Structure formats: structure tokens, C-alpha cells
Amino acid sequence: MAWLKQQDLFDADSIDNELIGIAADMGMHDSGWHQHKMGQFLFTQGGCITIRLNDRLCLLPPTRLAWIPPCTPHRAIMTEAVDYRSVYIDVSLHSNLPMQVEVMTVTPLLRAALERIAVADFDTDWSKGAKANILAVCLDEAAVAQREPLLLPLPSDWRLSGLDTDELPPPLHELAQKAGASEKTILRIFRKETGMTYQQWRQQWRLLKAIERLAAGQSITTVAFELEFASDSAFIAFFKKMTGYTPRVFMRF
To answer: Is residue 80 part of a domain?
Structure first.
């Protein structure tokens, strides 16, 4: 097992084992674009991680688990202190793992299995005995874990190159004017490249930003105001519609 420090370099592909766990407690950190031959489970116990992909944004809130398939270019960005565990797995030995990036709810049993893997020695034999059982529990729990809507597809059309994903997306008519295209054209681009209408995409963006800000300790009132909801109750209703939970319940998981 390795506790990583801010300046440490780590390459999972350089270690000869089917399963490798690491842990780290970092402040502001940007992994830079990279990929690895092994699949990766990434779990954060405190603080959010933004995972940038070629065509999507992924938000990993506290106590959730992200799955990143092998050879997936990605960049993990932490803007505050984050306590995380990372588990790398050889998918050639476990072919039932997802083929796409997913974020899932972590059950107590899955959390316990991840923690056991993260603190194990790099040369642990996971093919037999109690260790094999822990791995099996981890994979079984991950397979049935509830998936969460925490990915945002990104349009690539050149007319939307000025769309800033760090700022609240403007209303459709303002975006069309800025892009120099009609509203119908903008809607067509979003449906084609994201599978969403622009309004659906904007609402998904608001959800991810809301979770990120709540995890940073902002109040419901502050988040509702900054994301331009008419009231706290309107924000809470939106959040529950998108996730199935109120903000307070969601953040307690």
C-alpha cells in the first residue's frame, strides 16, 4: 500500500499485480491528462474530484465511487483537500466490468472492501483465500450499486467553443447570439452531440455544480442564489427531481 504525497509520482502499470490499492490526502491537485492499462476505481471520502474526459465531465462527490475503464484519457482535478482511495484492476481477469465511465453509490460493504484493498501490500495475492473473497465482494457490490447521474456530455462543435463549463451556461437565446447561430441550430447541435436538449444539458450542469458547492460547505441558500434558482424550495425540488433525494439527504450518504 502507498500513501501518496502531493509531489509523489505513481504508475499503476509498472506494478505486476492484478489489483493495486493506494490512498492519499491531498490539497489542490491536478493529475494532468493521462491513462493507464488497468481499470480504476476512485473513491473519495471527503471533497469533490472533477474528472475531465475527452467528451464529458464527471463529478465525483464524497462517498461515491467512479469507475474509469482502461486506456481512457482523463484528468482528475481537486480544488480542495480530498481524502481518496484508488484501486487499479487488471480487467483481462475480470471482463464483466463496465466499458464506460460510471459513478455509483457506495454501500457500507463496498466501502469496507475498498478500504481493505487500498491498505493491502502491492504484492498481495488476490487469487485465493480471504483476499480473493474481498475482491469478489468488491466486484459484486460494484456491479449492483446504484448508478448516479453525475456525467455531463460536452459538445464539440466549433460554434460552441466559447461555452465556459466553469460558468453558469446562459439562456438559449444568449448562447445562440454569442455563437452566431440560430436557436434551432444550437438545439440541433446539442441533441446530436450530447443526446440532450440544451435545457436538459443546462440543468445537468447546474446539478453537478450544486453538488460540488454543497460538498465544499456552501449553504443551500447560497447555492440556490448562485445557480439562479427562484428560491430555496425551487432548488430543493429541482435537486430531488434530478437525484431522487433532497440536497441534505444526498450529501449525508
So the answer is: yes
